[in-house]
Amino acid sequence: MRVVVCCMLLGALFSALEGLDNGLALTPPMGWLAWERFRCDIDCADDPKNCIGQSLFMEMADRMVADGYRDAGYTYVNIDDCWASKQRDANFRLQADPKRFPDGIKNLAKYVHSKGLKLGIYGDFGILTCGGYPGSKFFLQTDAQTFAEWEVDMLKLDGCYSDLSDMDVGYPLMSEFLNKTGRPILYSCSWPAYIVGSGIPNYPKIAKYCNIWRNYADVQDSWDSVINIIEYYGNDTGNFSAVAGPGNFNDPDMLILGDFGLSYQQQRAQMALWAIMASPLFMSTDLRKIDPQSKNLLLNTNVIAINQDPLGIQGKRLVTEGAIEVWARPILPHGSVAFAVLSKSTGGTPTTMGLTLKSLGLSHKQGYNVTEAFDGFAVGMFRPKDTITIQVDPTGVFLAVAKPHH
Ligand code: GLA
């Protein structure tokens, strides 16, 4: 009997969970995240410029302001794994590693806020983080409160060392605890990324409780990794694109422009596809050393505008023809689309192809003005059945916007 009452109570509690209510991520969030580039480098003695410590985040914040990233929309400065001390404090609260964050997270948040930026932090739903630091299991509410007291603005909650069967209840519970702090904290859930191995995640439910969510493998510093992610998003298994919209976005992981693994064309391709996929744009690169070409791609206002389109509709892969894929996403003004022609060819010479706007579902009889996005040049005016001739470089992309002609 006691078991029945207990379960009825728990059931009532969980069905009463309201869903995340923070008004955030109306367009895909943008910022900088430490993980892909800086990993779990905790060796501040020998590698002080690159280790996970307060000065790394302060220096990135400085660069984000001075070099125009903040003004282009990249406002979150995000700590990932390996920031914490291995022990909780006497009140079981998480604490930052005292050597690497001598002034604590709250002061780091103050610094970041003073620059007009926001601070993100990382936690884990399980007993330990993926890097072996304390997880939030048994401490979800304490940790939500601690992050709010530190004036943190975003939480990435990973799922290592946890029981998959707990996630369905636990991730929503953390959403509730974040709501209860009264501080708007953008909630990034790794929940579906752990579920995909054993079935299709319940995306509508995830979207009710999380602002953004990872649902695929970690990005690595290579074209193979980027193309794998693009394939996963093109396949769209479980129709996860359908739940994207203001407040909720699928997260294919960080941008790796400016790192070691992508050619210039491949960097354009990642930027273009992340724009079409309405993906969060978290750079993970050393902004102190980034080369001008990569920087200009990250700051390209036309491409960012596609990503940040207020409709928040996630683009889809419409056509696959050999090594060519055509992707499109509806954007404002109504009736317009942004489209990308991606070439996966490694054949060494550009591919030329003919594309009609009709094949993208466009039917406005007076036609469309088509503008290339990266450089902003007019491609021309095309009626739905007209052929647009497009040339794409190997492992490169053509990105454009088509707006109804009046
Ligand atoms: C997982 C996540 C990564 C990163 C690491 C940190 O692998 O998917 O994004 O946060 O953990 O350990």
Within the CATH hierarchy, at the fold level, what is the topology of the largest domain? TIM Barrel
Supply the number of structural domains: 2
Strand order of the largest sheet: 7-6-5-4-3-2-1-8
Largest sheet: 8 strands, parallel
Provide the residue-averaged pLDDT.
Answer: 96
CATH architecture field of the largest domain: Alpha-Beta Barrel
End-to-end Cα distance, whole Å, is 70 Å
- Return Rg in Å: 22 Å
**Sequence of secondary-structure elements:** HEHHHEHEHEHEHHEHEHEHHEEEEEEEE
Unreliable sequence segments: 1-8
The amount of helix comes to 25-40%
Figure out the total of helices.
13
Assess the beta-strand content as a share of residues. Answer: 15-25%
Task: Describe, in short, the structure shown.
The protein has helices spanning 2-15, 35-38, 54-66, 69-72, 104-114, 140-149, 164-181, 191-195, 203-209, 223-235, 264-276, 292-298, 301-307, and strands at 30-33, 76-78, 118-124, 154-158, 186-189, 212-214, 249-251, 281-283, 316-321, 324-331, 336-343, 351-356, 368-372, 378-382, 387-392, 397-404. The protein is of the alpha/beta class and 406 residues long.
General description of the model:
- By secondary structure, this protein is an alpha/beta fold.
- It folds into two domains: 2-307, TIM Barrel; 316-404, Golgi alpha-mannosidase II (Immunoglobulin-like), CATH 2.60.40.
- 31% of the residues lie in helices and 21% in strands.
- It is built from 13 helices and 16 strands.
- It has an eight-stranded parallel β-sheet with strand order 7-6-5-4-3-2-1-8.
- Mean pLDDT is 96; it is low at 1-8.
- The structure holds alpha-D-galactopyranose (GLA).
